[in-house]
Amino acid sequence: MLSQKRLIYALVKDGVYDLLGQIDIAWITDPNVQKIIGAIAESLSVNGSAKLPEVINTIEASQLPKVHKDIHIAQLKAIVSTPTVWTPELPQQLLADYRDFHKDEVVKILADDLSTVEQRLKKVEDLRTALIGVSEKDADNVHDLAEAHLNKIESGELTVMTQRSIRLKDVNLQLMFSQGRIFPVPIIIAGREGFSKTQVLTNIILDISTDKSGLLYSLEDTGETFSTKFMAAKSQMDYARVMMGELAGDEIKQLRADNESGQSKNVTVLEKMFTIDEWERDLRKRILTSKVEWVAIDFLQSFRGMGRGMSDIAVSTSRATKIMRQITKEYLIPIICLSQVNSNDEEDGEVKLHIGNLKGSGSIKEDARQVFVLHGMRDSDTRRWSCVKNSGFGRTYEKDIRLHMPAGKIMNVYEVVKE
């Protein structure tokens, strides 16, 4: 959140250290910012100040994995390099943002229509109890909000589509998707080779898999599979149980046992070449035997037996997207799928892509509800994120996103400046 970035700027750049005594660390809801604030506090304790080099040295001396250190340092540098206006009311703004964060938590709990009303209220009560230690007022607000939200569900004001959507937690991803959510529809993300499609998908998976279980189908047969393409993600998946291979009888039993014991696998990764029909059978079997709340595919044109001619690809893509649309309707889960663009659009230099540049664009235009394309300059760490189809969720739009290339982490999302 912006207020949390303003706090870091005020501490490191302007040296307003007394702000630390006016806030509660619980108000910092971004885990990365929490780590940076912790390093600032430690630097103050050791050095008596928290200038940028001192805070960086503190982060580098910590016990965090190197990829996490790189991300925190890159984020810290990006924040202090951008002039930020803050006011003495900053602590109050942090508290307000913290309360808004818990409002979102309440909505997420109550939108889980796979749970009974009693189960939802129990989770809300657990959240309310946890907040009592921080603020009695926050605890009361959570209770009131829960009642209001349930009344909206019963009156039909909240649609099933919104209830079954996945609320993104990272503020940058929230800016990239309508309403800050992943909706249960077919979603296509396209771009030229080397233009960060995989990194964006990885960021999404890392965000939603903290509390939602899902499947990642890595279909390529080129050696560029999960083991290599998702190397940066693997070091961040501390909480994700990664499983590779086919679904055998014993595995079905294990999945059932895990689900019954509450030890669900958050990310199931399949590195295998599937035909479209094999993939559909495998996915439906997994949905019926385990908890599947999202599906990701890398990538649409890599199903086995698709053929290489334009007409073959068009027919196969149409078959795949229609199955995706049907499954999202039946089970109300999102399917996020990467897509290639036509080879004549792979030239060097800046090329602005449209939905017609995608391979099999006819069926994608018909079956996908949301389509995003990445474009820009190949040697830049900034990409243009264009929503070229947003059926039912508002207008199309464009954002600029900046990535920390070594780790593939999305660092910032900006509004596009119109020339």
Would you give an account of this structure?
This protein folds into 3 domains: 2-80, no CATH class; 90-158, no CATH class; 166-415, Rossmann fold (3-Layer(aba) Sandwich). 47% of the residues lie in helices and 14% in strands. The chain contains 16 helices and 11 strands. α2 (31-47) crosses α3, α5 runs parallel beside α7 (136-155) and α6 runs antiparallel to α7. The chain is globular and about 65 Å long. Residues 230-265 have low confidence and may be disordered.
Question: Summed up, what is this model?
Answer:
This protein is of the alpha/beta class. Helices cover 47% and strands 14% of the residues.
Considering the protein shown, what is the CATH homologous superfamily of the largest domain? Answer: P-loop containing nucleotide triphosphate hydrolases
Mean pLDDT: 75
Look up the CATH topology of the largest domain: Rossmann fold
Q: What is the general shape? A: globular
Taking pLDDT < 50 over at least 5 consecutive residues as the criterion, the unreliable ranges are: 230-265
CATH architecture of the largest domain, please?
A: 3-Layer(aba) Sandwich
Q: Terminal Cα separation, in Å?
A: 27 Å
Radius of gyration of CA atoms, rounded to a whole number: 23 Å
Which CATH top level class of the largest domain fits? Alpha Beta
Number of helices: 16
Run of helices and strands: HHHHHHHHEHEEHEHHHEHEHEHEEEE
Strands of the biggest beta sheet: in what spatial order?
A: 5-4-6-7-3-8-9-10-11
